[in-house]
Design brief:
The chain has 155 residues and is mainly alpha-helical. The chain has one domain (2-154). The chain contains 7 helices and no strands. The chain is elongated, with a radius of gyration of 17 Å.
Length: 155
């Protein structure tokens, strides 16, 4: 069923347009990279603040870093779908693609759990020591997702 979905995506108008418009593909690729920079950059700045200073004043950093990461994710999703659609049957079975999706999933689950568990403490300006473990998992997850995404082209 998964392979059928990939074939349908590749045969869709999105796949067709992506394959036949060099300008659209180039612009999409650039926006995808920009989105990755926003996601990983925003999250990394926040996570490093939590790790380095035990969350002290992390809310001030998060006010800017978290919306930047969300904007990056908003760029990544539609551009990622178009980039996948161009060669969905080949890219969708790439081990690096699986790794990327797994670490994106881990990163999203981790950020949801972080905000569920520590959201009020973050807004109050103090995070408990266990928040650092979430920040470390987040930092690793998003960096691995970024690296796996780059590896897709080479596997």
């Amino acid at each position: 069923m998964y392979l059928d979905l990939l074939a349908a995506l590749e045969a869709s108008w999105i796949g067709h347009v992506g394959r036949h418009s060099a300008w659209l593909y180039m612009a999409t690729n650039l926006l995808h990279v920009l989105g990755a920079a926003f996601v990983v950059g925003g999250i990394a700045v926040f996570d490093l603040k939590v790790l380095a200073e035990h969350g002290k004043n992390a809310w001030q950093v998060g006010r800017y870093a978290i919306p930047l990461a969300a904007l990056g994710l908003a760029l990544q999703i539609p551009t990622g779908i178009l980039l996948l659609a161009v060669e969905a049957r080949a890219l969708g079975v790439n081990p690096a693609f699986y790794l990327k999706l797994a670490f994106i999933f881990l990163g999203l689950i981790n950020v949801a759990l972080f905000h569920l568990r520590f959201g009020s403490a973050l807004r109050a300006g103090t995070l408990p020591p266990e928040a650092r473990a979430y920040a470390l998992v987040s930092l690793i997850a998003w960096i691995v997702a970024l690296l796996a995404g780059r590896m897709i082209a080479y596997l």
